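Researcher: I need the complex structure. Ligand is zinc ion. Inputs:
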Amino acid sequence: MNRAAEALRSLLFPLARCLNCNEPRELDPGSALCDACQTGLDGVRVPDTACPRCLSPQRAGEPCGYCRKGGMPSVRAAYAPFLYEGAARQLVVHLKFGPFELAAKPLAAAMAHCISGLPFNALVPGPLHRRGLRARGANQSALLAGLVSRETGLPVRDALVKRRDTRRQSRLPAEERETNVRLAYEAGGDLSGLRLLLVDDVRTTGATAQDCARALRAAGAEDVSLLTAAVAWRGGDDG
Ligand SMILES: [Zn+2]
Ligand SMILES: [Zn+2]
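Model: Output:
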């Protein structure tokens, strides 16, 4: 191909890179992953054997260790399509640094599938707050909630506000983390009788989800469940 033809071709068929493996490929509009990585997502699905309350690993017939140690008492049930591993983890990272919408689409589609047909009244995005996101203007939980709303028809209700800045979780010893997020969020408005689904990108320690769920329950919510794109089985530095 001569140079002009090459330029025309790249204009008509721009090369994009797979968000997971970085493989250049012809752009398939609306798709974040190459075919191989899309298939790879199936390999990091949360197994059916996970604890239904928190999605932690669980041996048949035994209560999950996380819930036994306290878990997330204000969260009725947890839903997530993926473990925080492999291609799913890459997409979650891209939710923070971009390209936001492209990374969010396959996650939100899988999240919507997890809750299809379940009787919730509204989606509540985790508040814009932590990890210094205000400065970057990215709010991955609101982005995911908006896309899940489009797929499910459930309304988004911005019921949570942050009460104060939490110190960086990762710099704190584990036993201080819980008290640090405690009372960091509050719910606005009357949520009486509503069955709410808290939406976030990833559940790590569960401390944030527990705190948000407790605030929603305090504002009258009948119950609160948690929907995340991914769940980290080995803990993490916040969330
Ligand atoms: Zn790929
Ligand atoms: Zn559990």
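Model: Summary of the prediction. Residues 194 and 221 are 5 Å apart (CA to CA).
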